[in-house]
Amino acid sequence: MDWLAGAMTWSGDTNPPGRGALVSDLLSLSLACVGEPRQMPLCRLVYASLRGPRSPSDLVKILETSEARNAVEAITGALVLTPDHYLQLLEGERRVVDACYQRICRDPRHSYVGLILFELIDERLFPDWSMSAVDLSEGDGMAPYTEGKEFRPEELPRAVIEQLFRDVAARLRRR
Ligand SMILES: Cc1cc2nc3c(=O)[nH]c(=O)nc-3n(C[C@H](O)[C@H](O)[C@H](O)COP(=O)(O)O)c2cc1C
Q: Which residues form the BLUF domain (predicted)?
């Protein structure tokens, strides 16, 4: 109600506005509020989790659910498969991304879900994908990000995570 408080406070050294002026000011302010819905902050969230042994058969269903639901909730992102982990980036309005992450944390199709990165953003990295899977589990798919070591998501520097998802976005654009 800050806008209302502002509209009702008069602090000039001329005569205070008349009642009519105040009412019309309030009316135009409230019309402006109705006409221009406030932009909710966008955020980006990345987590990693351990894939279960059934992950190949789970994946199709997970993607079906994710694409349908994310499209409704304006969530976009990518799901990366590494040899043992899921690494997922979700972006969208903060409230819906948070609720989505809470559901994902409770999902028995994976375990040891851990938050890797959370930030407010101005624009999306994956504006065109409600959810797309990219498989880096084969061969040396993860080599550029692990320097030949075992992949431990919680130890990856932020710059490497960012590079990984920039590469994934570039890959999806080429598809
Ligand atoms: C690795 C993984 C990624 C998932 N990604 C999403 C997603 O991006 N969006 C989504 O709505 N659900 C996703 N899910 C499914 C959710 O965990 C959950 O099953 C689904 O949102 C339905 O939740 P509900 O039954 O509580 O309504 C994912 C699940 C797993 C295991």
A: 42-132
Output the pTM of the full model: 0.81
Q: Which of 59, 70, 103, 134 maximizes ligand 1 atoms within 8 Å of its Cβ, making it the mutation to test the pocket?
A: 103
Apex CA 163: angle with CA 150 and CA 98, to 5°?
Answer: 90
What pLDDT shows up at residue 57?
86
Q: In whole angstroms, what is the distance from residue 44 CA to residue 115 CA?
A: 11
Span 69-83, pLDDT tens digits? 999 999 999 999 999
CA of residue 156 relative to chain centroid, distance? 19
**Full DSSP string of 37-68:** PPPPPEEEEEEEEEEPTTHHHHHHHHHHHHHH
Q: Which CATH number fits domain 42-174: 3.30.70.100, 3.30.230.70, 3.30.457.10, 1.20.120.1200?
A: 3.30.70.100
